[in-house]
Amino acid sequence: MWLGALSTTLLLGALAFQYLARLPPCEMCIWQRWPHLAAAILGLAGGWVISRRAERHPLAAPLAFVTALLVAISGVIAAYHAGVEWHWWPGPSQCTGSAFKYSGTLDLNAPVVMCDHAAWRLFGLSLAGYNAIISIGAGVMTLVLLGRRRRP
């Protein structure tokens, strides 16, 4: 259930940066949100259902495993995105480089948000970098804890 809360918090943070700080997301930022959305739904709803039924519900471990995997997947996408921002490797052609790109909207004056330029950094890390650290760390830590629980 805590991973569902973490994913919800990270999504709310991303939306706050988007709407309150007016930092529109790039395409790779959106990619990171999908696994977090699924993890938030699975983690919160699954945790609530399990807590209402019994402490040792048979779906508890599988739901926790899938939720942890989704959080870690978002972190891996974020790590890839952070690498694109640091120009360590190429990113998707539709949102990197210096050429004019179509923004996907009917407004031809709408700016294209480039994936290879971090819109915000704190202590040298972008939002993608922080998502990578938090999500990979939480996902791996949960998977390790789940592995320890299964041992007799």
- Beta-strand level of the residues, as a percent range? under 5%
Number of strands: 2
Helix content: 55-70%
**Structural class of the secondary elements?**
mainly alpha
Number of helices: 4
Taken together, the total number of domains comes to 1
Strand order of the largest sheet: 1-2
CATH first level: Mainly Alpha
Taking pLDDT < 50 over at least 5 consecutive residues as the criterion, the unreliable ranges are none
Would you identify the CATH architecture?
A: Up-down Bundle
Q: Write the CATH fold name.
A: Bromodomain-like
- What's the pLDDT, averaged over the residues? 84
Report the radius of gyration as a whole number of Å: 18 Å
Task: Describe the model.
Helix 2 (27-53) runs antiparallel to helix 3 (60-85). The two termini are 24 Å apart. The model has no long low-confidence stretch (mean pLDDT 84). This protein has 152 residues and is mostly helical. The chain has a two-stranded antiparallel sheet. The chain is built from four helices and two strands. It has one domain: Bromodomain-like, CATH 1.20.1550.
